[in-house]
Structures are given as C-alpha cells and as structure tokens.
Amino acid sequence: MSFTRRDLLKYGAAAAAVATGGLPAWRPASARADQPEKKQIPIGLQLYSIRHQAQQDLPGVLKAVAEMGYEGVEFAGYYGRSAKEMKQLLDDQGLICCGTHIGLNALTGDALKATVEYNQTLENPYLIVAGMGRGYTESRETVLEMADRYNQIAEQLEPLDMQTGYHAHGYDFQQIEGETAWDLFFEHTRPDVIMQLDIGNCIGGGGDPYATLRRFPGRSVTVHLKEHGGPPEAVVGEGDVDWKQVLEICETVGGTKWYIVEHERSAGDPMDNVRRCLENLQALRG
Q1: Spatial separation of the C-alpha atoms in residues 199 and 192, rounded to whole Å
Q2: Cβ(35)–Cβ(57) under 8 Å?
Q3: φ and ψ at 13, to 5 degrees?
Q4: Whole-number Å distance between alpha carbons of 257 and 131
Q5: Would you say residue 72 has pLDDT above 60?
Q6: 159-168, pLDDT tens digit by residue?
Q7: What is the DSSP string of 225-257?
Q8: Is 38 helix (H, G, I), strand (E, B) or coil?
Q9: What is the secondary structure of 149-164 as a DSSP string?
C-alpha cells in the first residue's frame, strides 16, 4: 500500500521528542575565547524516509534505525499506535522522538488538546507543521496572517514547554516584495517558533540555506539534512550541499538541538540509503 505525506499525517496528533538540550557543549583546545562554542548535535531520522518499511514493520524498522546509530526519530504519522504504545516502542530501542510532522489543523481548535496530550505522553516538545501549501504565499498580507496564527499557537504552547514550528518546502522561497516568503514569515513570528529549514528543499526552491541559517540565529532548533544535486542515487554528503558549512553554522549560531536526516530520492534501497546518510554525516563531523 502506497502512502503520501498527506496520508501519513492523518495517522496521528503529534509525536515525541525528549531532546531539550542535546549533548554537552565542547570547545576545541585551539579555539579562541571569542569564538562561539561548538556542540556535538545528535542525529535523528525522519521516518517518512522509510515510510513503506515502517508501515509494514514499525518495531523492526525502529530496531534497525537504532542499530545504525541514529539517536532519535521524527514522525510523519503513527501507524495506528497510541502514544503509550509508541513510547514503549521507542524505549525498547533506546530512541528519542526528536519531533513530529503534523498538519496545522492539529494545532488549532479542539484538536490542539489531543495533540498536546499525545505529545505529553511521549515527552515531545517539538510540534512541526509539515507544510502549508502555496496558498499562504499569495501576498505579504497572507504571509503575515499565517505568522499571526503561529504566534497564537506558540503562546498557548509556551506554558507547556512545547514549541511549534514550520518545515521548509521549495515554494517557501518565492519572492514577495523583494524577500522570500520564508524570511517574511520568520521575521514576524515569535523567536520560539522553530525554523525547520530543509536544506535540499531550500536549494531546490532557489533559496540560500547558509544565509538563511545565519539570518535567524537560534531559530534552527531542528534542521532537516536533505541532499540536493548529484547523481540520482546521491545521499547526504554525495551531492552539491556544502555540509561542512551547514554543520558549522548549526553548531555555533543556529541554536540547533537535533539534526534530522530526510532522504526522499527513489533510487536504491531506502534502509540502505538512510544508513549511508548517517555514515557520511558521521565522517563529515570527524
């Protein structure tokens, strides 16, 4: 059975991510006192990358992902599991949920209460809207209206130690009165609204991920590491992205607590692809 991202979003209210601080910060012995501290950021996997395998055997997939060396997972649907069941599956493999992808409707009206309860069970603070469609980018006014909606949601979540955020797609980088819809949106949202930049989607939409990460320091709490360019089978580290620069920004000024791998190319075996993504990232970090 084939599932689209929209199909998967129907399965759940929200997901689990206990990642509130990552691993201890470290400073190279050679670093000057005026240089920003770097930190070793844990790596999670967006399960949409291996959605068909997860649909068939979620416990087996989580076990395999943990054995690869991933420290957490981000959900895009829950495959019919309750929050208690899902938390147990994660605990069995020593995995943390580093976020969830949901629809904006799961954070509004009566649905917000259910979303919060699901995530409290899973100890997840990161409620990320997977996409909003091109409609919100029609004009400066529509972008600002959407920003106001997120601000209201963020205000409701703040007392609960939860955050909402938005995940990038190519259409977010279209120009509106001389700046991108993405920049306009985040210029008018509260600092605690997470800017989940998807590196590959940003480049694919004509954006500059390096400049965007720098422009909004501290907002990149979780970042999607997706390759762009290269051969059809290219995984993270084998295309056109300057990953050294991405990691440097995230580990100094980005405020990043989780790297989240997402691989959507159809070439190759999905499980092997996400394994190679992780291996390449680990090699890049040295």
Answers
A1: 20
A2: no
A3: -100, -50
A4: 21
A5: yes
A6: 999 999 999 9
A7: E---SSSTT--TTSSS--HHHHHHHHTTTS---
A8: strand
A9: HHHHHHHHHGGGT-EE
Residue range 129-160, pLDDT digits in tens: 999 999 999 999 999 999 999 999 999 999 99
d(CA 23, CA 220): 16
- Between β-strands 175-176 and 179-180, what pairing exists: parallel, antiparallel or unpaired? antiparallel
Kindly report the backbone phi and psi dihedral angles of residue 74, in degrees, each rounded to the nearest multiple of 5, phi listed first.
-115, 135
pLDDT for 285: 87
Q: How far apart are CA 149 and CA 129, in angstroms?
A: 12
Q: What percent of the chain has pLDDT over 70?
A: 87
CB atoms within 10 A of CB 58: 18
Q: Which domains does the chain have, with CATH numbers?
A: 5-23+36-285 (3.20.20.150)
Q: Which residue reads 């829950």 in tokens? A: 78
The two tokens of residue 221 are 């709490």
As a whole number, mean pLDDT of residues 57-68 equals: 98
**Phi-psi region at 218: left, alpha or beta (left = phi > 0; alpha = psi -120 to 50):** left
Q: Are 139 and 146 a contacting pair, CB within 8 Å? A: no
Alpha carbons within 13 A on the beta-carbon side of 24? 2
Nearest by Cα to 173 from 215, 145, 119:
215
* pTM of the shown model: 0.86
